[in-house]
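Give me structure tokens for this 303-residue protein.
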Amino acid sequence: MNLKTVIFDSLKYIEENINETITAEDIAKNSGYSLYYFSRKFKEKMGLSIMEYVKDRRLTKASEEILNGRKIIDAALDYGYQSHSGFTKAFKNKFGFSPELLKAFNFQINCLGGNFNMLFLKNTDIHATKEELYEVLWTIINDNKLEYDKEKLKKAYEFACRAHSGQKRYSGDDYVIHPINVAILLSQMEASEEAVIAGLLHDIILEKTSLSIEKVKSEFGQRIAEVINGVTNFDGHKALIDGDVIMIKLADRLHNMRTIEFIDKTRFKEKARETIDIFSPIAARLNNEKLLSELNALSVKYI
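Here you go.
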């Protein structure tokens, strides 16, 4: 069994024992490797030490339960914390706010209506229309005070809508909602204007649209065309120095993982493993904790 498979199996082992008292030694022993060797390889792959990863998964799972109405102390005890104060300290260190705030979010969602998600990047309605998503995109841009050229983004949005006209996703929705969601995620990560424009147009080659890369180059310039080519020819196992390409690929993978339920179930595990193998380590190197946490959380469901 190769090391990559062993790490995937270890993630499954952690999920199955997340409520138990497990140590790095237990996880390494289950893998069949020495603690020293496995710890080093695990951190290389996941961007976190074994027990840092376990801690993050426990905090994330506890937070999901609290957000769904569970008492803080009950969730804390279930995930290995001996006191409310110890859990609160660890929670604040990871998320930057207290777990009590999740109770307020729970009240807002269930009693007043709303959609809060402080733990991960903002999610959108899975079946939102392209017009609704375009409004969300500009709301985020304005809220983050990003100085993007409105006319350029509108032009890219309209190009994407024309290029993907008639194409559908597995969910049955218009295909163009995917690149718009990618642009939304990029704006949340405060990516460059070029990355957001390229994000809107990133699938024109792979999806065999009517819009050629030459047309993109003539309308949006050499840089946007280069980024799209980089995304199209992306190889996650090779070193990349183009930050815009990396950001787009991460946003693309995150939205695809959020909608993985619509693809053939036989591909679930393949996509989950690829995400852990390629995209989570990139997010870790960028120190993007929200992105890393969500990619890991989505992936371990299907390993």
